[in-house]
Amino acid sequence: MAGGFGGGGAATGRAELYEGKITGYFILACIVGSFGGSLFGYDLGVSSGVTSMDDFLKKFFPDVYQRKQAHLHETDYCKYDNQVLTLFTSSLYFAGLVSTFGASYVTKRHGRRASIMVGATSFFLGGAINAAAMNIAMLIVGRVLLGVGIGFGNQAVPLYLSEIAPYRIRGAVNQLFQLTTCLGILVADVINYFTDRLHPWGWRLSLGLAMGPATAIFVGALFLPETPNSLVERGHLEEAPPQFEDLKEASEAARAVKGTFRNLLATRNRPQLIIGALGIPAFQQLSGMNSILFYSPVIFQSLGFGNSAALYSSIITGSMLVVGALVSMVTVDRLGRRFLFIEAGVQMIASMVVVAVILALKFGHGEDLTKGVSTVLVVAICLFVVAYGWSWGPLGWLVPSELFPLEMRSAGQSVVVCVNLFWTAAVAQCFLAALCHLRWGVFVLFASLIVVMSIFVILLLPETKQVPIEEIWMLFDRHWYWKRIVRKDPKYPGNLHEQQEMARA
């Protein structure tokens, strides 16, 4: 199992001595832990489908329903532009943004498993309230509880998977989170396809079925082992694994640090702050992928697809996400994180340009798109989705979880989730209005942002494949840019290590 790399020079080359073994119990722990992603994925999928269902719109958003019917078979960029409707989607992510700081305390003081269980409980309650909703207020309350559940789950699950995994397969194990997220999306899309035919309560079933994965995760978490890092961090030294010495040193360094959130601003932690806490989680959302996930049925209906065809197209895009996640699991520890980021960036840029060009030439004149044009649009979107599925989707959670030292890992992951959910909520709240006003230009905007994201990765992200977590800080010590910054901090692990060597001499 992988341990935590400490800010106090815990990494001394011992990591290869404690490569963990893959046991049946380890596999069970990974499966149950990774299913935390299914909560996030199910909500992404189900909310996008429900907001396009006529019965749901008639009950809560009659103005949107009337506008939709008036342009039922026409292309119309502004068909779904309603800020209250988008608040139904984005309120969850604002709630998750706030709750992740509480999740940091629970994760650090009570363990990763406790946070997973709290998240499952809150998600269950949110699903129950949404299924029984009689007004918009109940919908929002339910969404807030779902958001709390996602805030806790997204904070704890990537940490849990990275810490429990043998370092040589840490990338694949961590990406179980993304795989179950994608499976959750796909399952929700299939459910929406069938519940849309159950009038007038099908949407209630879609929302209420969120209680299923929440229950499974809570029950499974009762049997999960805690991670070795968490055990040592909380003083349970007698339960620590073979990498005890590295973990003990990291834990002592962690206890010596006061104000872990403030410690994120230290010069020695600048790469983790810029890359892991701010850059990657923001860019993951600014890629435009979640806009497609949130509103894929809405997008396809706006493009002139019928209601059932729109939901069917969502199943296709959900399937592409699963394919991408599987490809990433197989290749991430072989080809590396940087390769997947860069290759996918090229593919995503090309796909967005194709979508923008077609929409600029063929869309927005109140006419039906031809079958050929519609097919090209769906193919371009699928190529975009599958590229995201093997790059920014899973790596957006994997890479930050690898970077932070133990003394700031819970705090760092909280900032990751906070930044991620802030941009998720912002994109969710603004996308339909941007689609209405920028029209095809919104896809040019996303393509431009992906160019920036790719340059960011090329210049600033070192390759972390098959590097033990305890030794990742050494990558910054050798990086062409970061080494000039981190070495200025007298408390930087490399400087402390040199001081220790000099003292021994």
From TrEMBL:
Name the membrane topology term.
Multi-pass membrane protein
Recite the UniProt keywords alphabetically.
Membrane, Sugar transport, Symport, Transmembrane, Transmembrane helix, Transport
CDD domains to which the protein is assigned, alphabetical: MFS_STP
Q: Which intervals hold domain Major facilitator superfamily (MFS) profile? A: 29-465
Q: Would you identify the family this protein belongs to, as annotated?
A: Belongs to the major facilitator superfamily. Sugar transporter (TC 2.A.1.1) family.
Q: Which NCBIfam families match?
A: SP
Q: What is this protein called?
A: Major facilitator superfamily (MFS) profile domain-containing protein
The source organism is Setaria italica (Foxtail millet)
